[in-house]
Amino acid sequence: MDEERDPVQSMDDGSMDLYEISEWETRSGLDRFAQGLYHAAIVGVRWTVVVVAVLILGLQVVLGGFGLLVDPRVGTFVALSIVPAFVLAAYLWRADVTTSEPLEILVVTFLLGILFANFAGILNDTVGQVVRVVGSGFGLVPILGLLALYFLVVGPVEEAVKLLAVRMYAYRMPEFDAVIDGAVYGAVAGLGFATIENALYITNTLQMVAPGMNLIQAGSDIATIRALAGPGHVIYSAFAGYYLGLAKFNPDDAGPIVVKGLLIATLVHATYNTCATVLVPIVASVTAVDTFVVFLSFVVLYDGLFVYLLLRKLSTYNDAYRRANRNDEPADSPDLG
Fold first, then answer.
1. Where are the domains of the chain?
2. Which GO terms describe its molecular function (predicted)?
């Protein structure tokens, strides 16, 4: 879409000074003050979001069960639970045929994914409960309340905060110089989200282990379940991140592109939650197969499908990059004898 121009701009041959007539640039002291105030406000909002997230995480550590993480056994369970998600995120990073993303930006994105997960937790617990009650017809149809929770709150909120982790820092860096970079940073934000979510589930579960019970067995069980759930966050946010990258290089349509990415991630995420919560127990009951076996089979098939679709999308980009790169190479000079 062509940039809109004022009639005076369109007709000017360059001979007129159009400052504050139809154009603007920083000239006066007030102009510089206004520009500085604007940028300070933007930076202030960003830092406020980060500080609030840090404070929430701090309260969780003090008031919650994260103190258990100092137990090397519990820390080991958390570390093991994110191995599959880490391997997937690393593979997506390696699958990028453009310039490799710097480690420091990946680390910051990972940490922001951890921090911003707290916002999702608060919204899921507050808004989510109201939506679930209303969606169920105040308890008349519980399954509808669960669907409302997953599709209207959990899915969109969690995918939005992971995308915010990318938008807050990596998106603004010059190293974010290709559409596919969005998928890489989205995957890393998803890894951060999965890490803190797994830590929360594992510590909460182990807090309820009665004295004398086998902590190792209880920890192994919950770590295995969380290891299966973790890769999903990487997959969902990689999809959303890819469309964030597409939006960065198509600013005229950035809004709809980001919304499309969030819709895709939300639908895949919420469908996973619904199937894991509702469908898996039904199948296990009908077939008399162990619930864990049914859950494992579902995760392998479901995540496998969307990993394939994600890799196919990235492969399409990589193929186009290679073709464009070959076309950009200078032709061989003719042999003049």
1. 64-316
2. peptidase activity
